[in-house]
Amino acid sequence: MSDEHNVNGGSSKKEQLEKFTSDDRGKKMTTNQGLKVSEDEFSLKAGERGPTLMEDFHFREKMTHFDHERIPERIVHARGFAAHGEFQVYESMKEYTKAGFLQDPSKKTPVFVRFSTVAGNRGSGELARDARGFSTKFYTEEGNYDLVGNNIPVFFIQDAIKFPDLVHALKPEPHNEMPQAASAHDTFWDFIANNQESAHMVMWAMSDRAIPRSFRMMEGFGVHTFRFVNEEGKSHFIKFHWKPVLGTHSVVWDEAQKINGKDPDFHRRDLWDSIENGDYPEYELGVQIIAEEDEFAFDFDILDPTKLWPEEDVPVKIIGKMTLNRNVDNVFAETEQVAFHPGHVVPGINFSNDPLLQGRLFSYTDTQLIRLGGPNFHELPINRPVCPFHNNQRDGYGRQTINRGQVSYHKNSLAENTPETSTEKEGGYTHYHEKIDAHKVRARSESFKDHFSQATLFWNSMSDAEKEHLINAFSFELGKVESASVQNQVVEMFANVSHELATGFAEAIGITPPAEQENKVTKASPALSQENTTKTPVTRKVAVLLGKDFQDKEVNTVLETLKEAGVQPEILSDKLGKVKGVEGTELEVDHTFLTADSVLFDAVYAVGGSEEDKAFYKKSALFVHEAFSHFKPIGATEEGIKLLQVDEMKNSKGVVYGGEAKKFAREFIEAIAAHRHWDRNVV
């Protein structure tokens, strides 16, 4: 086939090249000093699986420039919201770690948690298809410990030197600054197709995990492999998990897009309101533990950040609970000024040689220096440790401590050599004594080169509905890509993951489906499917569509039963004020059809009223129809039942109607607990 024409109707290769012309086309890569670069894929390490070296001036120049590219907001994770809380361990973890906050089950450790999207700016909508940040600052008596993670357990890249490239590709395209907070564009998918280590993360990003129902129903992961080290110096490799007590749940894509229009603050409002109402979000902390001698006992490299540890192979040990019980007093002073860093650790928690983690240990401090105006960001109230801190660091932008005395160096005699260092027994932090005997190389271990097996594992683990959502997500994203070449490359790439998946979205975007190839990965991990999560009606919001002259006794019984089950009903009518029942009961209206929408609720209870009000029933019918199309539970009694005539709702899953009030309420609560009814026939 000639380069001048594409059989799938795309532009010619020549036209595409002209479109993406840049001043750097055809040039050799150099540093900012003009030095030619020989390698831009791998940071400089002590051996292929060793730690990243400070000597790597190319990595530091590239990362420093990236860290300082946004003023004043965060480069990534700009759109965030946060809350205060406390953490309590269930049992002493002394066997594995000497970390003080993981020893005493009676002790509560203050925490501050920031949730965020990754790609969008501070003004972007919260329901973008995106990974979510899930970062926790523990204010321990041994110093601050930051668990800086995401709601997805893996990442796009294996080496931190590629992080600027990833974000440059993901962010709005620089020539027109579009699209905002979205990955559905050429440069992102061009990066994916040409950096195939991203295959596993892309599966998560295209799944329902990327459009969570709320921060309260979202898992968190530490992503990287860390170490627990106990008093005897014995090390175990670990991964961190946050498990939401309410289960892990999502919205559908059409719903997500509408929520961004109806209420772009949907996630932060949900978190704020839940805490104000006393429905405190809870998450259990779990750890996966691998003995050091078992480092090479698996069919994947445990240091590879694009790989997870299947829970069926390495069980998650639940060790404690975090409760968020206080909203911030000031978003800027707390949520915006909080500074997380994976290098903020306490004794008993150490690092692995994961090359992405190694780079983050440099990048985060560098980022805070520009974002928060200098080296004293630790003195901002939200960042201050609860324990005292003493050192010889002085001055700089934003300094708040007024240091007295003439000595600010170590060692000294004028101040009797204080502040002095601590021994390990006194709580002094020591790095794990790992033997390193290696050459300095820019390389990556051969064990990192399997890019597709866990992506296939993820696909195999999905329910039928989740697989359908994945195909639709790829179809939407690639449907927004203008380059036929990039579309073809992505189809070919994901044929390595699943022929069914690649064929599904290839046909949707008008690309020739790939040839079927043998895939030897048949393993599945049930823990990866949201179908297997906790399901509860607690804190679910139900829109109650109420008209004049409703049946008082029945409605009051249903509402009381819902509230007893932890469900939160909110009254909708065609105007604010009070709506009156046939026996004189008056209920306060929370929303009108103008101020609320079905996408902002988990379920709908249609009641109506005996008075014929065509406008009310027309609005109610649209409200119910949309909720039904998003697979939500629908309940109806009395006049509300006539709203179920369309779409054959009466014969569909998750639709409950009529009958004795308490029995109806119990059945409706059961339908609400299921979250969504994916086997429903939706026209």
UniProtKB/TrEMBL annotation:
Which positions are linked by 3'-histidyl-3-tyrosine (His-Tyr)?
A: H341-Y364
Q: Where's the active site on this chain?
A: H77, N150
Q: What is its EC number?
A: 1.11.1.6
Q: What class of enzyme is it?
A: oxidoreductase
Organism, as annotated = Saliterribacillus persicus
> Which stretches of sequence are listed as region Disordered?
1-35
**GO terms for CC?**
cytosol
- What broad taxonomic lineage does this protein's source fall under? Bacteria, Bacillati, Bacillota, Bacilli, Bacillales
The protein's matches in PROSITE patterns, at most eight in alphabetical order, are given as: CATALASE_1, CATALASE_2, CATALASE_3
Q: What is this protein called?
A: Catalase
- Keyword field: Heme, Hydrogen peroxide, Iron, Metal-binding, Oxidoreductase, Peroxidase
Instruction: Identify the residues that bind heme.
Output: R74, R114, F163, R360, Y364, R371
The record's catalysed reaction(s) read:
2 H2O2 = O2 + 2 H2O
Q: Which family does it belong to?
A: Belongs to the catalase family. HPII subfamily.
